[in-house]
Design brief:
Layout (H helix, E strand, L loop, with lengths): L1 H18 L25 E4 L12 E5 L4 E10 L5 E12 L1 H6 L1 E6 L2 E7 L4 E8 L3 E9 L11 E12 L5 E12 L8 E7 L11 E6 L5 E2 L4 E3 L7 E3 L3 E2 L4 E5 L18 E2 L14 E3 L5 E4 L9 E2 L6 E2 L1 E3 L7 E3 L17 E2 L16 H10 L6 H5 L10 H6 L1 H9 L12 H5 L1
Parallel strand pairs: 2-10, 17-18, 22-25
Antiparallel strand pairs: 1-3, 3-8, 4-7, 4-9, 5-6, 5-8, 9-10, 11-12, 11-23, 12-17, 13-16, 14-15, 14-19, 19-20, 21-22, 23-24
């Protein structure tokens, strides 16, 4: 019985095994680590103003800069990332004039200490500093000292570039801020000249003194803020105001032309009336014209007045005029054309051309063409042989002398010729 039961169980097992299809199985194991944090580091910074506002270009934006001008700007290099870094600061020209970029001066201060003070185009600090806490504050001052004419009406377009580098690593970041500086136009020496001086006053009043300036250029010149030294009492200067038109004149007068003490024609309006105009009559003084940059634009000779006349009592007063070519000096106004109602209230003995071109015949630079003409027609010296036997070239330049010689006329009167008319005596006859 037991054997039969065992056989039955075995048969059932085999039957079940043969009826089960393919199966698969695997083992699984899992480990968990909790509480871990992964953090990435970054190198990042930005350029801001002192109020922590991001800067935008242009940083410096200057137009009409002239010698003596300067401008200051502040920039903060702010650390925005996690990594400490080292950075450089430098200038890079974008466009414009190399001459101007080289002439501009830059003073750079880092956290109050001057770290650079030289020409703008040479600015290159590498490395500048290491950011570790949060920010560095820079102060940039740009100025123009040179008044060289080549710098007028030029531009310098440039960037300030800050390049950060990771300390001991390969990360980097670069920030830049653009700027543009444009110069204006300024007066050059001789662009305005002291053209005429009535240093002695007029026959109407001894204080009827005036100084005339002339613009020698083809463009208007604003002289507001310019100073004329020596024209006031003692060492005091007179501050000028106004604009002189191209090739125009500017009249600075003690009296207005309509004043009873002024001999100037009423229709000639002074550009500036200043009762402090007081010119030393004797021995004289030097006048110096300076612009707002304190540059000398023009100057009269030192010592006594080099031209002009004054009589005492004041019966004839003649101004001191600049030659037509200002570089050749001065002369006294003696032309009759200077002494009429074109310039004066009534004809008298005042000579000058207030607020008008100088007309004096005593101006050597105005007669250069005449001198050159005379030199061209000068007759060469004639030798005795050429006089005895004149050639065709000599005769045209000598006939007036032969015909008007007193000896010829006297000889003819004393010994009149009868009969047919005879030819004029030759030079040989005159010599005998």
């Amino acid at each position: 019985m037991k054997i039969r039961i065992f056989k039955i169980i075995t048969l059932l097992f085999l039957f079940c095994v043969t009826r089960i299809g393919f199966t698969s199985a695997y083992f699984l194991d899992q480990e968990v680590s909790s509480g871990n944090t992964f953090v990435t580091s970054s190198l990042d910074f930005s350029l801001r103003d002192v109020s922590d506002t991001p800067l935008s270009s242009p940083f410096f934006n200057i137009s009409g800069m002239v010698p003596g001008n300067s401008e200051t700007k502040l920039v903060r290099v702010k650390k925005d990332g996690d990594l400490d870094f080292q950075y450089s600061a430098k200038f890079k020209k974008v466009s414009g004039s190399d001459v101007l970029c080289d002439a501009l001066e830059l003073e750079a201060k880092l956290d109050g200490a001057t770290v650079y003070n030289s020409n703008l185009s040479g600015f290159d600090l590498d490395p500048a500093t290491i950011i570790s806490a949060g920010a560095d504050d820079w102060e940039f001052t740009i100025k123009l000292d040179s008044a060289d004419s080549s710098l007028r009406e030029k531009t310098c377009d440039f960037d300030f570039i800050f390049e950060g580098r990771q300390i001991g690593g390969g990360l980097s970041d670069e920030e830049k801020i653009g700027s543009i500086i444009a110069t204006g136009s300024w007066a050059l020496s001789g662009s305005v000249v002291i053209n005429e001086i009535m240093w002695m006053g007029s026959t109407v009043h001894e204080l009827d003194e005036w100084v005339e300036l002339r613009n020698t250029t083809g463009s208007p010149i604003n002289i507001t803020g310019w100073k004329l030294y020596g024209a006031g009492p003692g060492p005091n200067e007179i501050v000028l105001g106004g604009t002189i038109e191209a090739h125009g004149y500017f009249l600075l007068s003690h009296y207005a032309s309509g004043n009873a003490n002024s001999a100037i024609k009423d229709s000639i309006i002074a550009d500036q009336v200043d009762n402090s105009v007081h010119l030393t009559g004797s021995p004289g003084e030097q006048l110096t014209l300076k612009d707002t940059l304190d540059s000398i634009i023009d100057q009269t000779p030192t010592g006594s007045w080099v031209a002009g006349t004054h009589t005492s009592p004041a019966t004839v007063e003649q101004s001191m005029e600049r030659n037509n070519d200002p570089t050749t000096g001065w002369h006294t106004c003696i032309a009759d054309a200077c002494n009429d109602t074109t310039y004066w209230d009534a004809e008298g003995n005042n000579y000058g051309t207030p607020k008008a071109a100088n007309l004096s015949e005593n101006d050597p630079s105005a007669t250069e063409d005449i001198v050159e003409l005379v030199e061209e027609v000068t007759v060469p010296e004639v030798t005795p042989e050429e006089t005895q036997e004149p050639t065709e070239e000599v005769i045209p330049s000598e006939p007036p002398v032969v015909k008007t010689a007193p000896e010829v006329e006297e000889s003819v009167d004393q010994e009149p010729v009868t009969g047919p008319a005879q030819p004029a005596p030759s030079e040989e006859t005159v010599d005998e």
